[in-house]
């Protein structure tokens, strides 16, 4: 079975919930004074990254409702006065949406690709890998451990394997930066980070 077929025929919902738990546990450690810290995503502070993920959760939920084409549904996340509570609320929203979707339903994801939609099975895998890697972004910014379970790393590596690598798809301001060289024998979690443009030693 080729990689894309495997991803299209896998139900990632349980792993996505596990990735949300990893992400939320990291966000719970963010203190108010840490919100202004830089992150490995050059365009975002911690506050900006948390707001981005809330927006993404809301966007995926909107896509399940058939309203994914409106960019404002992907850009209006609000952290309010309690970023962790906002993250929990958006996580619950997207989990409920994914629980109700048919895996072959087409979801419009304008921030992933223009034009046609993506089967929900693949869209959920995109959400999963975002959570796992953004959990690292937050953890690196606030200097706390990032310890994703092996099954999360393995699934995320498969998804990372289909992310386009051409210059038009990678770089500053795009979903992922250009891949970073990974040394021979690197741990799977570090290989995941480098595949998606992160430097594991960032600080």
Automatic annotation (TrEMBL):
Annotated source species: Actinomadura rubrisoli
InterPro entries, per the entry: CHP03086, DinB/YfiT-like, Maleyloyr_isom, MDMPI_metal-binding
Signal peptide: none
Protein name: TIGR03086 family protein
One example GO MF annotation: metal ion binding
NCBIfam families in the cross-refs: maleylpyruvate isomerase family mycothiol-dependent enzyme, TIGR03086 family metal-binding protein
Domain (Mycothiol-dependent maleylpyruvate isomerase metal-binding) ranges: 22-139
């Amino acid at each position: 079975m080729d990689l894309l077929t495997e991803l299209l025929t896998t139900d990632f919902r349980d792993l996505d919930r596990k990735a949300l738990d990893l992400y939320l546990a990291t966000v719970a450690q963010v203190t108010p004074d840490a919100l202004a810290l830089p992150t490995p995503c050059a365009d975002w502070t911690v506050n900006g990254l948390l707001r981005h993920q809330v927006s993404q959760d809301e966007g995926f939920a909107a896509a399940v409702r058939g309203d994914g084409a409106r960019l404002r549904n992907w850009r209006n996340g609000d952290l309010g006065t309690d970023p962790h509570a906002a993250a929990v609320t958006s996580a619950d929203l997207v989990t409920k949406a994914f629980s109700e979707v048919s895996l072959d339903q087409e979801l419009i994801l304008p921030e992933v690709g223009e034009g046609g939609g993506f089967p929900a099975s693949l869209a959920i895998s995109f959400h999963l890998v975002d959570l796992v890697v953004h959990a690292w972004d937050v953890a690196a910014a606030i200097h706390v451990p990032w310890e994703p379970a092996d099954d999360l790393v393995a699934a995320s590596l498969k998804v990372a394997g289909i992310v386009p690598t051409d210059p038009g798809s990678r770089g500053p301001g795009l979903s992922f930066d250009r891949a970073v060289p990974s040394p021979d024998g690197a741990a799977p979690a570090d290989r995941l980070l480098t595949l998606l443009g992160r430097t594991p030693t960032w600080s």
